[in-house]
Specification:
This is Cys-tRNA(Pro)/Cys-tRNA(Cys) deacylase. Belongs to the prolyl-tRNA editing family. YbaK/EbsC subfamily. It comes from Lentzea pudingi. The strands form 2 sheets. Strands 4-2-3-5-8 form a 5-stranded mixed beta sheet. Strands 1-7-6 form a 3-stranded antiparallel beta sheet, with helices on both faces. The longest helix is centred in the first third of the chain and has 9 residues. It has about 160 residues and is an alpha/beta fold. The radius of gyration is 14 Å and the shape is globular. The protein is about 25% helix and about 25% strand. The chain has 5 helices and 8 strands; from the N terminus they run αβαββαβαβββαβ. It starts with 6 loop residues before the first helix and ends with a strand.
């Protein structure tokens, strides 16, 4: 599929990880990128995960949670053995990851940030997360997502 490559898909290909790409027409008027992906692809929303960048003790980190919930900032800080967390400034998140908001993938980020994947991902055979562009999702096993990102698995959804 020409023209669809992203750093996330390049990483998956380089590592020879089994995955499936799913694309849909992104509607800029939709209020939630993640819920839009679930609706467009006909998926149970709890199986679609969003990638959120936060600051833990002043350093950027990533929380990967279902699109149906909020990121528990205290849980994220605890999972990374930090004290305090807050959502990152969007421009900082985009600069560090190399992706635009709404298309930030936990995979293939420009700067490798600490990642925490919500434990709910483990209940599914495969999960969906951004493949690095709005309108492009990657289906991958939770184990491969955790392995490729070096993630900690913890309860970080609120």
């Amino acid at each position: 599929m020409a023209g669809r490559g992203t750093p996330a898909t390049a990483l998956l290909d380089k590592q020879r990880v089994a995955h499936t790409l799913h694309s849909y027409e992104h509607d800029p008027r939709h209020e939630s990128y993640g819920l839009e992906a679930a609706e467009a692809l006909g998926l149970v929303p709890g199986r679609v995960f969003k990638t959120l960048v936060a600051e833990v003790d002043g350093k950027l980190a990533v929380g990967v949670v279902p699109v149906t919930v909020q990121l528990d900032l205290k849980g994220l800080a605890a999972a990374l053995k930090g004290k305090k967390a807050k959502m990152a400034v969007v421009a900082d998140a985009e600069r560090a990851t190399g992706y635009v908001a709404g298309g930030i993938s936990p995979l293939g980020q420009k700067k490798r940030l600490p990642v925490v994947v919500d434990e709910s991902a483990l209940q599914f055979e495969t999960v969906f997360c951004s493949a690095g562009r709005r309108g492009l999702e990657v289906e991958i096993t939770p184990a491969e997502l955790v392995r490729l990102t070096g993630a900690v698995v913890a309860s970080i959804s609120a």
